[in-house]
Amino acid sequence: MDIRIKSLVAAVCAAPLLVTAQPKSASDGIAEYRKMLEDGNPAELFEAKGEDLWKQARGPKKATLEKCDLGLGPGVVKGAWVQLPRYFADTAKVQDVESRLVTCMATLQGFDADELIKTPFGRGEMANITALATWITAESRGRKFSVPQGHPEEQRFYELGKRAFFFRGGPMDFSCASCHATDGKRIRLQELPNLTKNPGDGIGFAAWPAYRVSQGAMWSMQLRLNDCYRQQRFPYPGFASDLTVALGVYMGVNAKGAESIAPAIKR
Of 13, 68, 179, 228, which one is the catalytic site residue? Predict the structure, then answer.
């Protein structure tokens, strides 16, 4: 066959591939951007700080947190995050990782729990709680979520979290469900996960805490929820309140089987 005919046939055969090639979506571009940043995720600095704080003798009692029970026994950290929030008999409350840290810092180290809770995000001991939570979550990276529902209080908190998730109000008549209850929604070119069901590995609840590049700060789950209420134009919920813990139970139970990638990195 003449070389010119061969070239023409090859060009014709390749044409359909050129026609069907699709440009990358905005979400694909964002995913690539996050992937590029993963190797240098500043969350690693907070992880290191959190591990150091866990082992430091601090507070009025000059004690470490190495006897803190996160649900799997005193001092057991690996695997604890993916089973939180959960019911704790010593406080008779359902607690997430941050509220549990407040309890441990108060009982083991002698800190004033009320003062800890009132401290603004990113300052003083609140910044330390965020670092501790970052390290604790990192110790469960790659594990599957299995937030317990065996205790009546855990079941009650799930229902409370569900009601809070769908509650509409405020000047915008928004709810958590306004953004996160259906498939295919987007905001600022980003896809919004449907948190009423398992959104998949490393998505939604399974990605927080996370380092926010745009703020240059580490965001805990409590801060993430706080900011969601800001965007809804609601009053800020109290730190480690039953409301925020219940929302964590609702999202955590719905994420059963999803793999945690926390601490992640966000735009």
Answer: 228
Q: Look up the CATH number of the domain holding residue 88.
A: 1.10.760.10
Look at residue 97 and tell me if it is in a domain.
Answer: yes
Q: Write out the DSSP string of 74-108.
A: BT--TTTGGG-SEEETTTTEEE-HHHHHHHHHHHH
The H or E element spanning position 9 is helix 3-20
> Average pLDDT of 210-234?
93
| Burial group, residue 184, by CB count within 10 angstroms (0-12, 13-18, 19+) | exposed
Q: In what helix (H) or strand (E) does residue 245 lie, and over which residues does it extend?
A: helix 242-254
Structural domains of the chain, count? 1
Residue 126 has pLDDT above 70, yes or no: yes
Please indicate whether residue 228 is annotated as part of the active site.
Answer: yes
